[in-house]
Amino acid sequence: MITTGSKLLIGSALAAWAFAAIYGVAQEGALGTIGLISVALGLTLVAALNVFVSDSNVSALDHESFETAPAAQATALPSLWPLLTSLGLVAMTLGLATYTVIFVLGVIAAAAGAIEWLIQGWSERASSDERFNRHVRNVFADPLELPVAGAIAFGVIVYAFSRVMLGLPTKTATVIAFSVVGGLVLLLGTVIAMRGRASRTFVGGVLGASAIVLIAGGTVAGLVGERETHEHETPADLAEANECGPEETHADADASQTVAAKSSVFAELTFDGTELDTRVPGSGGKFDTLTFPRSNPTNVLFHNEASEPARLVVEMHPAIDDNGDPVGPERICTTLVEEGGTQFLTLVFTRPSFALAAEGVGYEFYVPGSDATVAVVVP
Amino acid sequence: MSVSPSTRTRIRTISAVALATVVLASCARNAPQDTWQPQGDYAQQIQDLQWWVFLIAGIVGVLVISAVTYAVVKFKDRGQPIPEQSHGNPLLEYAFIALPAVLLAVIAVPTVATVISLNDTDNPDCVINVTGQQWWWEFDYPVAADGSICGFAPNAEARTIVTSGQMIIPTGAKVVISGTSRDVIHSFWVPRLNGKRDMVPGRRHTWNFEADQPGIYAGQCAEFCGLSHANMRMEIVALDDADFQAWIDNQLKPYEAPEDGTLAAAGEAEFIAQCARCHQVDGLTDSNGDPVVAHPEDQVYSGAAPNLTHLMTRNTFAGAAFDLLNNDCRDDVWNASPAEFGPRYLEGVTEPCLNEIELKEWLRNAPAKKPMYTDPALLEPTDGLVRGMPNLNLTEDQIDNLVAYLLERK
User: Fold this and answer.
1) Is A88 part of any domain?
2) Are A296 and B180 within 8 A, CB to CB?
C-alpha cells in the first residue's frame, strides 16, 4: 500500500519531471532545465525512500516497533558543526579560485568543524544518559575549545581596541577614551563591591555588552581607517635643507624643552640674547674656545635664557668625497628652544681645525639671528 | 685519621716556604706603580685612609681568626660528651651588633670625607682633556680664555697642544683631567698620584692629580678594554714651573722640515706616503705646500691615531708600552733626582739615547710587538677598519728613513 506521504512525494516528483521536460523543450535546454531536473531527481529519491520506510509510521499496536523503530530513537542534538564544516569546504573551494587566505581559513574551519562533529557524534552514542554524554563531550572538547575560544576572544578584543585607538582623530580624543574606559572599569568594580556579590547574569551581561560595544566600535573604526599621521621634519632634515635658521619650523613644534641627561656633557652653552657663555664642567676657568677631541662623539647642552626662542647651530665643514659630495652633515642644530629651555647636541668632528684653517673656515657654535659665537678647536 | 710524622714535616715545610714567599714579595722596592708610595696629595689622602681601614680590618681579622682557631682546637671532638646547649646571650648579641656598627661608622666617616675631597674638581690650576682609545691615551691641553695653557702663558701664539702616552703636568698644581673614550670603557690609573677613574664613551669624567715633586709616574689602563689592555700604559710627567714653561714653549714651536738630501728628508717623504694616512704631524706640508692632514677616521675604527708632532720630546711610544730611550738613558731619566729630572727629561730622545731596536721592530711589524686587530682577513666586523697599527710591510731602507725623520720630531 502506498502511504499518504509517498503519494505526495511521487506526485511531486512526476510533476517536477513534467515541468523539466516542458521547460527544457520550450527553452531549448537552458540552464533552468538543469535546476528543474535536479529538483525532479531529488524528489524522486525522497519519494523512493519514503515508500521504503512507509512514511516512518509505526502502528500504535506494534509495541516492539514502537521502541525499536528509528523514529522512536533519540535524535542527535542540534549542532552547528556540520554547518561550520560545510562552510569551511566552500571557503576552501572559493579560496582556490580567489585568495589564499580564504583557502587557509576554510581549511581551519573545516578541520575545526570536523573534529568537533566527530567528538559530538561519538559522545552522543557513549551511553543512554544524556547528562553523562555531555560530560564526556566536555572532557574531550574543553581542553581544545576553551584556550582557542579565549585566544580568539582576546585577539578580537585587542584588535578592536587597537582599531579604535588608531582611528581616533586626536591625542585629546585618545585621552578621553582612556578616561572613559578607566571610569567604566572603576564604576563596575564599585558596583560589584557595593553589591557584595554580583550575580553571574549581571557580570556576564556587563562583560558581554562591553565586548559588543568594543567589537562594534573596532569594526567601525577599522572600516573608517586610521587617522592621518603627519610626518614631521627632524633637526637633521632641517640641517640638510639648510633650515637651521631663527624661524620656527615643523621640527620645532612640540619639541622637548628639557633634557634628561644630567651629566657627562663636555660643555654647557648659555645664550642670554647677545652672547654665548660657556661652562666646562670640572673646570673653574672660562674658555673662549672649546677644544673637542677628534672623531669622538661629544655632548653639549644649550640653555636659552633669552626672551626669544633660539637654537644653537654648528657648521661641520665636512670633507668632500671624490664625487664632490660632503661626507657627513654640513651643519647640526638643535630645535628651537623657548626661554628657560634646554636642548642637547651630540657632535663628532672628524677634521682637525688646522685643515679647515687652510680652507679659510673654522668650527664654531652660533645662534642664528644674533652675533653670539663660540669657536671650536679640534686638534 | 692520623698523619705520619714525615707528612706532617712536609706540610710544615711547604707552609713555611709559602708564607715566606708572600711576606718577602711584599717587600718589593722601586715598583713604579706602588700604591703604598704616594707622591701627591690625592694619593696621600687615599694612603691615609687605607692605613686606618687596614689597621681596623687587620685587628678584627686577627681576633676572628684567633677565636675560630681557639674554638676549633679547644672543642675538637675527642669523644667527650656534648656540652649543655644554651640559647641566646643578650649581652653578646647586643655587643656583636653595636661593635661592628661603631667600627663601620669609624671607617665610613673618613671614607666619605675622602671620597668627597678626591672628587672636588673646583678651582683647578690646569685642565687637560684625556681621551682613551684602544690602546693608547691622547692628551690635549686647551687654551683658556686668558690665552694660558694649563695655567701658564706661552711665549708663542697659544694653540691647543696634543700629545699621547705621557701627560706633562706642573708640580704642585691641581690638575683636573676631563676624560672620555672613543670606543670602549677604559680606566685612567696612575697609582702614585690617585686612584682609578673610568673613561666611558659618550661621557665626561673628571679626576684630580697633583704631584709633589718632579718625576715620572707610571700608570696603566685599569678596565679591560680588549686585546692589548695590558699594553695600554701611560705616564704622568711632573715638571717644576720653569721646566713646564719650557715644555709648553717647545710644544708650540713651529714645524722644522728636515734638510734636503738627508735621510730625514727621505723619511719625511715616506711619512707623507705611509704614515700620514693616520698619524698627524702639525705643520707638515706636501710638495705643493699644502698642509698634510691625516685621515685616521678612514683607516682606524675608533677614528684617531697618536699625534707625532713632537714624538721625541716623550720617551715612550705605542701607548707607552715601549721605551724610546735605551736602557742606560732610561735609567738616567727615570731614576733622576727631582732636582735633575726636569732638564734630563726636556732633553728628549737624542740619537745616542734612541732605542733604535725597539722602534725599528715596531715599524717593521707593529702587530707582532703589540697584539692588535689589524689582520685584513678579520676586519669584516669593523668594515675593514683597523684597531691599532697594521703591518705596513716597510723595507729596511724605508724604516731607516722614517727613524731618521722621527728622531727630528722634537
Assistant:
1) no
2) yes
